[in-house]
Structures are given as structure tokens and as C-alpha cells.
Specification:
Elements: H1 15-22, E1 27-32, E2 38-43, E3 46-48, E4 51-56, H2 61-68, E5 71-81, E6 87-100, H3 103-114, E7 132-144
Antiparallel strand pairs: 1-2, 1-5, 3-4, 4-7, 5-6, 6-7
């Protein structure tokens, strides 16, 4: 044993989760600050295979947090209502790899989804910056919606208090 924590296997995202992500809702990324406090920020997300990808042109807090502690969670609000009466939402947990470069191209691709076709964002002046692409290996899928395969119920540990 190398002393490393064993990671759960990567998952194949359910089709309904993929469809929600491709529709362009703002996602919320949760990371851990150096002092242990939570950090939450909105991010544009896309897919590369079964990896969730997002980017930053600069090393903002989210990037620095993920360099130090790559485990994170992402939530995405759905547009539908579940049969239970709850609004659907998707929660992904996993591990991120931060890659230098290619952020401009990814953000341009995502801008067409989030801001509209033909949108040129970020501005061309930033095209020479490498930026950072964050690639999340999804290890757990949850929330309320067709991606969970079951109606919402009590959490397994709810009875324990």
C-alpha cells in the first residue's frame, strides 16, 4: 500500500445528467479553502467524455484550492420538477486534475452555450494566456432527478440522528 487514499472508480454519467449539463445551466463548484472553510463559486461546465470540464483564465481561488485539494463537488439546478414535487438538481462528486493551457478554447466553446451562438468570450486579447482547464473525474452522482434512478427518500443515516 502506498499510503494514498483509494479513490472510487470513475462513473459513466447517465444520459439525463449529460443532457442537463449540455443545456447550459450555471453550476456551483464547492472546494475547500486552506483554512478548511468552504469555497463556493459559479462555473460554466461542459463534458469531455464522462469528465466534467470547466476553466479559468487565471489562477483564482478555485484553481488554487483544487491544486492543493482536488476533491470537490458540483451542483447543477435542473429545469424540471420531480414527481415528488421537488425541483430537480444534480450533484456530482469527484476528483479534479488541473491542466495548464487550453482554457481560452474551452471558454469560447462554453460561451456559445451560456451566452449564445457566435459569442466571442473571453475577449481575443486573452487568447495568448494559457489559463487552466479543470477536469473532474466523476466518482458519485446524486441529487433529485432521473440521473439517480430512484425517487428521493430518507438518507440512509437519517434515522441515526
Amino acid at each position: 500500500m502506498s499510503g494514498e487514499t483509494e479513490r472510487p472508480p470513475a462513473l459513466t454519467l447517465p444520459a439525463a445528467a449529460r443532457d442537463l449539463i449540455r443545456s447550459g445551466p450555471l453550476a456551483h463548484l464547492a472546494t475547500v479553502n486552506p483554512d478548511g472553510s468552504p469555497h463556493l463559486t459559479g462555473v460554466w461546465v461542459g463534458l469531455d467524455g464522462d469528465d466534467l470540464v470547466f476553466a479559468s483564465m487565471y489562477a483564482w481561488r478555485k484553481t488554487k484550492n483544487l491544486w492543493r485539494e482536488p476533491r470537490c463537488a458540483v451542483s447543477v439546478e435542473g429545469t424540471g420538477m420531480h414527481a415528488s414535487g421537488l425541483r430537480e438538481y444534480l450533484v456530482l462528486r469527484g476528483t479534479v486534475t488541473v491542466e495548464e493551457g487550453s482554457a481560452f478554447a474551452l471558454l469560447r466553446r462554453l460561451a456559445s452555450v451560456y451566452m449564445g451562438p457566435g459569442t466571442e468570450f473571453p475577449p481575443d486579447e486573452l487568447s495568448t494566456l494559457g489559463g487552466y482547464v479543470m477536469r473532474m473525474r466523476v466518482e458519485r452522482v446524486g441529487g433529485v432527478g432521473p440521473w439517480t434512478g430512484a425517487p428521493p427518500g430518507l438518507p440512509e443515516d437519517a434515522a441515526r440522528g
